[in-house]
Amino acid sequence: MANEPWIILPDGTNIFDSEFRNGALEIAHERGFSRIRLASEEDIVAHYVRSDLFRSGRLGIIGHIRSTRLQHLITRNGIAAILLGEESVECWRKTMGGSVTVCSVDNASIGQMAADYLFNRDRFASFVYADGMKADSFVWWTDRRYKAFTDTLREHGYTDDIPRFFAQDATPDVNCERFAALIAKLPKPVAVFAANDRIARDLVCFADITRIIVPEEVAILGVDDESAICTTSPVEISSIKIEHHRLGRIAFQLMLHMLDGDSSRDKVILCPPIRVIERSSTRRNTPADMYVNRASEFIRRENASQLSVRTVVDACGASRSYLEKHFKRETGRTILEAINDRILNDTRRLLLDTDMPIALIAHQTGFSTTSGLCTLFRRRYGMSMSEFRNTKRMKNAAD
User: Fold this and answer.
1) Measuring CA to CA, which residue among 114, 314, 330, 115 is closest to residue 216?
2) Which of 78, 232, 247, 300 has the greatest number of beta carbons closer than 10 A?
3) H helices present in the chain, as ranges
4) pTM of the model
């Protein structure tokens, strides 16, 4: 055992690193391999590069290696290395060139799966890709997911623009306002593919704050299937599951072969997504009661100016008392609340996208005077319709 090599694994806390590490440690336990350290790239440079271990030829590193100094030291000392993530490969090839071994999730396949899943729901009028922030740490992998998502939608025949929304690029309040403004401009319902579950959770919270109904108006799909995030969100999040754990097992086995003298150092191992774990954020809940279902569809499709509790009841063929009771039980809203939500969504869109006078907006949404709509709008959003229009437009211009 004295000649047994050491292996350094990543110490990150994100789901990729933690599940990957668990898979790797399983193989270590099965093989009786005990000489393992957990370290970040910075820790390796700070604490290990001057040690005898680094020059012993009996060290393997599996991790996110972006430091130019560390890349040179690995090459100079002949250290077995497996890079994690496409961003590490890009950095290595720009700096060092030559062969490199990499294990990564298959970002292109993730984008394709998201597009296939959402498009095949056959109900969305528009699509959005949601990123975290405009930073290098995101760009490497999210660019690939975004491109595959948009390319696959194009293959399905979708031709409209696919906005790229950055959900973590400013303060939460600003991001929330930007998200609401974007959704207000798009044909409903909207399907949003978020780059990971943490971004998806932010979007669900934004929707909750701004009274956007998930999934009826906006469906949200994440990536990674982080149960602690997906199941504790205000609306449970559908997510693409990836076998990070299996990738860790494969990488550790490959490293053992490399340390035993396998000279092959130019392998690319991509971990594809498994499937979509469907939860409430994309699952359209069709009411079990056929009359409630008819009422929901009528409210969604009918011209807003024609909506009232009476017209909804007449369109469904049930008694008013029956429909009001069962509608509330199945949707969590009264018929009037559902109508008001629809009217207010239309009102916000008209305020942002047109110069239509407020009196005409009130007429188009079924109000004989502006005062009724103005009161409803102020009660919901805490400002007048004019203030809303001016504030949002100034912010959009500043952005």
Assistant:
1) 330
2) 247
3) 15-31, 41-43, 68-76, 86-95, 107-119, 136-155, 172-185, 197-209, 227-230, 244-259, 290-301, 309-316, 320-331, 335-353, 358-364, 370-381, 385-398
4) 0.70
Instruction: Identify the pLDDT of residue 346.
Output: 83
Amino acid at 341: D
Those residues of the chain that have pLDDT short of 50 are: 1, 395-399
CA distances from 24 to 10, 36, 221 (A): 11, 10, 28
DSSP β-ladder status, 102-105 and 80-84 = parallel
What residues are paired with 80 via a beta bridge? 60
Provide the token pair at 109: 């396949």
Cβ(338)–Cβ(332) below 8 Å? no
Q: Which two tokens stand for residue 223?
A: 């990536």
Render pLDDT for 256-292 as a digit per residue (tens, 0 to 9): 988 887 655 667 888 889 999 999 899 876 677 889 8
Tens digit of each residue's pLDDT (9 = 90 or more) over 158-215: 999 999 999 998 899 999 999 999 999 998 889 999 999 999 999 999 998 998 989 9
Rounded CA gap, 313 and 321, in Å?
A: 9
Q: What is the DSSP letter of 346?
A: H
